Amino acid sequence: MMWWWMALSVLGSMSVTGPLGIAVAVWLLAGRTWRLSLSWCLLFGIGMLLVVATKVAWYGWGIGIPEWKFAGLSGHAMRACAVYPVVFYLMFLKARPMVRHAALAAGVLLAGLISLSRVPVLAHSMSEVVLGGAVGLAVAAAFILTARSEQPAVVGRILVALCVPLVLVMPFTKPVPAEQWVREVAMQLSGNEPAKRTWKLAPHRVRLPQLRQAI
Hints:
The chain is mainly α. It has a domain at about 1-50 and about 75-170. The protein has nine helices and no strands. It has helices at about 1-10, 15-30, 35-60, 75-90, 95-115, 125-145, 155-170, 180-190, 210-215. The two termini are about 20 Å apart. About 40% of the residues are buried.
């Protein structure tokens, strides 16, 4: 069971979601939708900035919510919930409305599972995952609402061609030490030793058969 959660967790890593976010921007630029590409970069950047800000606040000054076991937004959850719904939406942008909506729902479901995986692998608490995912979904929703007013000229196959190699190859590359970078920045800014959790992260038991029945 743990391999399932670990595999999902990898799909939310910076090594995968970072290049996917760039692929979306490149695809939009190729379709000559400059304003839409800029909107995506700004929205995704704001989401990343919120993640970094909450983590720096925790590592540097211990600012968090102990009652919620909250020490910063989950970057995996935020990136997954921002990127995958948008990727699925754009890949089926030219499809019938029912197919496009189903693809978007699949992207949201995948993002939700990736976010949830951070709890059983003991990387985040449920509050960090939920709040991080909420920020990511807000980013995706804001972009999709903006995209409705514009029609990129490039068909979805190009985005597939960009994304598939990334999803297949990037999980096997060297992980990006993003958390370490954030911790070092926090130490430099605050001059303090990095704060440590005063609570234990306990995995929430989510059984796969139950999950399948829910789906």
